[in-house]
Design a protein that fits this description.
Elements lengths: L13 E4 L2 E4 L7 E11 L8 E12 L6 E5 L6 H9 L6 E6 L2 E2 L5 H10 E4 L13 H11 L6 H14 L4 H4 L9 H14 L4 E5 L7 H18 L2 E6 L2 H7 L2 E6 L2 E7 H6 L4 H8 L19 H5 L17 H5 L5 E2 L6 E2 L20
Parallel strand pairs: 5-10, 5-11, 8-9, 9-10
Antiparallel strand pairs: 1-2, 3-4, 3-6, 6-7, 11-12, 12-14, 13-14
């Protein structure tokens, strides 16, 4: 049931009756993504060329406790496609996204409204998400009116003040201003407050700190942690910055060309990477010491060389220093590497190659 996120739920679904213990069915996960695949192209305008943005992606996020799950990888790895699919902006080519047991592509009108309220988004660019003609107060009022969150003006003002307090802002400082009168950090925190107004169960945060400075980045990450711990809000955190993922996330998925290269508890994945791509990704982070030269060199093969791996093989084949013939022939399964849910989609992780026992998991 995923990368052991469900293990943290703790309570067993059982109760006592006169006939003894009766096991109750566990509640459905908060979010379950099953074999999600998105293929672009293939039409006349694209000359028949098809590009797989997301490939057989699986994830299970339980209702409780709240968790921060990082989706990381380089540009073009499928991170934003996944985020847009969860938010309903992109339709999958195949696979399912279930929210509390319901297929999000088949929700009724009322269920869709509930989904929109309980699954919110924080976008990357705080400069482009606002209508420049509206004051900040109007931006927040629209949320309250659209979802009927307050009985009267006084209640609405209290909700806005409380949401702004969570993100470290005061209403008198921002409500009567237009977006261009605020700093980038203030704009981004107001977007966090806007999402928080709805008290969502899940926030999809797509690169939320990539366009703010270092001090504000730390503040926004701290706000995310508080929202998880104090308000029970889970996050899907989309990023290319593994240092911030290491700071705040409970679990990490590393994508390469739409496929999961490695996943598991964040400390295990970041401190003990097993997939050659993840090792390369972590090795490309410079050490913050001017006296120590950055020794890493990265070879990027041509597009033609990368396509030689074929649609059935490992997408990292052309860039991998350890590739074998079977890597080209078939996509590696995900091998369990240490029993805590840490999995690696690489034949090098096959313990049978080292005389041990192979453990694969083709599931979530």
């Amino acid at each position: 049931m995923g990368i052991s996120l469900a293990v943290r739920q703790g309570d067993e679904a059982a109760r006592s009756t006169q006939g003894g213990l009766v096991e109750l069915a566990p509640p459905p996960p908060l979010l379950e993504i099953s074999r999600a695949t998105k293929i672009y192209g293939g039409g006349l305008l694209q000359g028949g060329q098809r590009v797989g943005a997301l490939r057989d992606f699986n994830l299970t996020l339980p209702e409780k406790p709240a968790a921060i799950v990082t989706i990381a990888g380089e540009s073009g790895s499928g991170k934003t496609t996944l985020a847009n699919s969860v938010l309903g902006f992109t339709t999958l080519t195949s696979g399912q996204i279930l929210y509390r047991g319901q297929d999000v592509s088949q929700l009724s009108r009322q269920q869709h409204i509930t989904y929109r309220r309980e699954v919110q988004a924080i976008f990357q660019d705080p400069y482009e998400v606002y209508n420049p003609f509206y004051r900040i107060k109007h931006v927040l009022d629209m949320v309250i009116q659209r979802f009927h969150l307050a009985r009267d003006r006084s209640s609405a003002d209290q909700m806005i003040e409380s949401a702004l307090r969570v993100v470290g802002l005061r209403d008198a400082e921002v409500l009567e201003k237009y977006p261009h009168q605020l700093s980038g950090g203030q704009r981004q925190r107001i977007m966090v407050a806007r999402a928080f107004l709805l008290r969502p169960r899940l926030i999809v945060a797509d690169e939320p700190v990539s366009m703010v400075d270092a001090s504000l980045r730390a503040m926004i990450l701290e706000i995310m942690l508080r929202m998880r711990d104090e308000y029970g809000i889970s996050f899907i955190y989309i990023t290319h910055d593994l240092s911030t993922a290491y700071q705040i996330s409970d679990y990490t998925y590393i994508l390469y060309k739409g496929s999961i290269a490695e996943k598991g508890p964040t400390p295990s994945v970041i401190e003990h990477p097993r997939h050659p791509y993840v090792q390369l990704l972590l090795g490309s982070i410079p050490i913050p010491d001017p006296k120590q030269r950055w020794q890493t060199s990265v070879h990027i093969p041509s597009e033609d060389d990368q396509l030689q791996a074929g649609v059935d093989g490992c997408p990292f084949y052309a860039r991998c220093s350890y590739h074998m013939e079977r890597c080209r022939a078939a996509m590696p399964p995900r091998y369990e590497v240490n029993g805590d849910g840490h999995q690696c989609a690489c034949y090098l992780c096959d313990q049978a190659e080292k005389g041990g026992t192979s453990h694969t998991n083709g599931g979530h």
